[in-house]
Amino acid sequence: MSTVSSPIRVTIWSEFRHEKKNPRVAAIYPHGMHQTLAAALGQHPDFLVRTATLDEPEHGLTDAVLDQTDVLTWWGHLAHGEVSDAIVAKVRTRVLEGMGLIVLHSAHYSKIFKSLMGDTCSLSWREANDKERLWVINRAHPITKGLGPFIELPSEEMYGEPFGIPTPDELIFISWFTGGEVFRSGATWRRGHGNIFYFRPGHETYPTYHNPQIQLVIANSVRWAHSGVRIKDAGPNLAPLEPLPLDPEATQRSTIGHGR
Fold first, then answer.
1. Per the domain annotation, does 127 fall within a domain?
2. Per the domain annotation, does 221 fall within a domain?
3. With contact defined as beta carbons under 8 Å apart, do 201 and 134 qualify?
4. What is the number of domains present in the chain?
């Protein structure tokens, strides 16, 4: 007998600011980067996709939305500082409980990524129309399923080492740029019960998120990041399962305390 599994509930979060301010970005993503990603992921029958943006109430990340999110993707750049600390704390808690988090491009400097990494998350950069070649260095990983040896992007912003992140649990991609720089452009971590993937490409003035291979990586990473659990933090005072031997010192202290 066949069974039908529940779809992975994906929330795509974006600032949605560049598209409103910069005509060049609006021409590439007329409905916003989040909608381009939503359309791509929405083609997969195992995903149930919704979007959320910075200027919505509670940044679109209400308790109800987070309760119904298995994997959250995050893109930010202009307005990291405008993201509410209270919302960041809620998202962080959900990741620790088991929600997956996909951190895209300039969201390396977002509050949520920095709080989960516990590091500067700084890097070197150059916005100069570099060619980027993302080398797949873990061919057996689920995130790289369906890819060849590398992904080549004819135009992208350069990110270079050093990258202020803790040592990744797994390194998936390393990028090379025309200027000679290299960068750890795809890396995973586990925090609490949640899986985190950072994926470098995605500067707003280039059509990176229209690239089928980039879309494939993000879809693969959503499936990989889905833990299927929600385990809330608890620190109970546990009763022993079996009788414990008496502690003579504790008995003596109890006797002294009663004045005997």
1. no
2. yes
3. yes
4. 1
Report the DSSP pairing between strands 47-53 and 194-199: unpaired
Radius of gyration for the chain, computed over Cα atoms and rounded to the nearest angstrom:
22
CA pair distance 133, 125, nearest whole angstrom = 16
CA separation for the pair 260, 3 (Å, rounded): 67
Q: pLDDT of 131-188, one tens digit each?
A: 999 999 999 999 999 999 999 999 999 999 999 999 999 999 999 999 999 999 999 9
The token pair at 233 is 């933090």
Query: Model-level pTM?
Result: 0.92
Q: Return d(Cα 160, Cα 174) in angstroms, integer.
A: 10
Please give the pLDDT value at position 246: 83
* Residues 79 and 18 sit within 8 Å (Cβ to Cβ): no
Going by pLDDT thresholds of 50, 70 and 90, the confidence category of residue 255 is: low
Contact 225, 47 (CB under 8 A): no
User: Quick one: tokens of 132?
Assistant: 């980027």
What domain range is 214 assigned to? 8-119+183-233
Residues with Cβ < 8 Å from 114, sequence gap 6 or more?
Answer: 120, 121
Q: How far apart are CA 11 and CA 6, in angstroms?
A: 15
What does the alpha-carbon distance between residue 10 and residue 235 come to, in Å, rounded to a whole number? 30
Q: What angle do CA 145, 148, 152 make, to 5 degrees?
A: 115
**CATH code, domain carrying 16:** 3.40.50.880
- Cβ-contact 81, 105 below 8 angstroms: no
Task: Kindly state whether residue 28 falls inside one of the protein's structural domains.
Answer: yes
Answer whether residue 59 is part of any domain: yes
